Amino acid sequence: MLKINQLHKSYKIGDSSLHVLKGIDLSVEEGEMVAIMGSSGSGKSTLLNIIGMLDVADSGEYILDGLPIDNLTEKKAAVYRNKFLGFIFQSFNLINYKNALENVALPLYYQGLKRKKRQELGMFHLDKVGLADWAHHLPKELSGGQKQRVAIARALAANPKLLLADEPTGALDTTTSYEIMEFIQQLNDEGKTILMVTHEEDIANMCKRIVRLRDGVIMEDKAITQVRASQYV
Ligand code: ADP
Ligand code: MG
């Protein structure tokens, strides 16, 4: 699904520069569910953003689904992003003035689907996350867990090959976190490849593989026995 070789990334801050990723090698196969761990500031989001083509590396090689991603124009990157990737964020990133259905249907607009088809598919995905009855509610009328479920439905609307999640449970209480993780595990059971960033050990243990970042490199990369979130829900 993706292959990264010797990826480097620095940020310029005034006259100095902060070397965040110092030669990352990572391969992810189709169907995997991988947690990227590391302390705050270790570069987890930076790595995920590069994988998600929201940012670019300074050097190294990145191949996504057989396509070399380095040196893509922003326009091409946007096309691949819409085609291959779904995103979930800690802060949900829903559009406040659009209702749940409109939020979910938005990626389909960028895919050029007609309004009726967007509404149909949007409802299908909202129903999948158990929120069909909330389709016409605004984000502010939803709980944190419901907002994240809308965000998951939106991430899945365009049927991405790879789902990227940056601290998807970071803003949720423990019970709601497990509910969201159960959901993400189900998606993986259905075959979706998932790459998520977390700094919580409990959450990482619900994945199938843990990659740990430290000092800009991967210090550990191992398969684990997955803990099922359903045990806790
Ligand atoms: P994590 O997600 O593991 O907490 P990040 O990838 O967000 O870490 O950040 C890694 C380091 O890079 C941190 O020291 C952070 O302050 C710095 N950083 C992140 N984004 C930027 C940016 N756009 N400009 C400058 N420094 C940044
Ligand atoms: Mg982060």
Automatic annotation (TrEMBL):
Write down the CDD domains for this protein, in alphabetical order: ABC_MJ0796_LolCDE_FtsE
GO CC annotations, alphabetized = membrane protein complex
Show the Gene3D superfamilies listed in the entry: P-loop containing nucleotide triphosphate hydrolases
Q: Does the keyword Transport apply?
A: yes
On the tree of life, the source organism's domain of life is Bacteria
Q: Please give the PROSITE patterns that the UniProt record associates with this protein.
A: ABC_TRANSPORTER_1 (PS00211), ABC_TRANSPORTER_2 (PS50893)
- From the UniProt record, which GO molecular function terms apply? ATP binding; ATP hydrolysis activity; transmembrane transporter activity
| Span of domain ABC transporter | 2-233
**UniProt KW keywords:** ATP-binding, Nucleotide-binding, Translocase, Transport
| Family according to the record | Belongs to the ABC transporter superfamily. Macrolide exporter (TC 3.A.1.122) family.
User: What's this protein's name?
Assistant: ABC transporter ATP-binding protein
